Amino acid sequence: MISQPSRHCAVELQALPSRIGQVRRIVSAQLRYWHLDTLIDQATLGVTELLANVHRHAKSDKTCSVEIAFVLGVLTVSVRDRDPKLPELRRVPDTETCGRGLALVAAVSESWGVRPDERGKVVWFTLAAAEQAAPVPPATARRRYGVVAEPFATEDTRERRERRGVRAVGV
């Protein structure tokens, strides 16, 4: 029997420098909502590095999705892009400032990996929660002016995200 419900959030975006900060804020807010504040620094550092890799290395299409899921005390953060080329963990001299993304992800996470996907690849990492998070009450939609609103965003917040090209789904 699962003692704690699973939690999931996904965001689709273009991996552009201006969008990376937005995704960091979304991930931080979602982890605070799930009472996983102790994982925010590691998760946002890891997702920043993975999105920066998509921006730098993915060929032509920078469209990607970020998913975070918390199941049985483990947070999994994954970034899916459309470039089938798999990344490599490289040893970079201490004098280099570029090429350390996966090494940083490996350093801050419990585990990490990459797998081919039908349309590209998925790079993921996991973080273990230090203590059991308090259960989040089930998401209930609120009615606002006759429209069902997402439980974690107001109607105008969603509209602003959509105008900027960021779409969040699920809780």
The profile of the biggest β sheet is: 6 strands, antiparallel
**Helix-strand topology string:** EHHEEHEEEEHE
Percent strand equals 25-35%
Report mean pLDDT, rounded to a whole number. Answer: 76
Which structural class should the secondary elements be placed in?
alpha+beta
As residue ranges, the low-confidence spans are 139-154
Radius of gyration: 17 Å
Q: What is the topological layout?
A:
Blueprint: E1 7-14, H1 17-33, H2 40-57, E2 63-71, E3 74-81, H3 101-108, E4 111-117, E5 120-128, E6 142-144, E7 147-149, H4 155-164, E8 167-169
Antiparallel strand pairs: 1-2, 1-8, 2-3, 3-5, 4-5, 6-7
Helix pairs in contact: 1-2, 2-3
What does this structure look like?
The protein has 171 residues and is of the alpha+beta class. A hairpin with a 2-residue loop joins strand 2 and strand 3 (74-81). The longest helix is centred in the first third of the chain and has 18 residues, at 40-57. The chain has four helices and eight strands. The strands form two sheets. A six-stranded antiparallel sheet has the order 4-5-3-2-1-8. Strands 6-7 form a two-stranded antiparallel sheet.
In short, what is this structure?
The chain has 4 helices and 8 strands, in the order βααββαββββαβ.
Descriptive terms for the model:
171 residues, alpha+beta, six-stranded antiparallel sheet, two-stranded antiparallel ribbon, globular
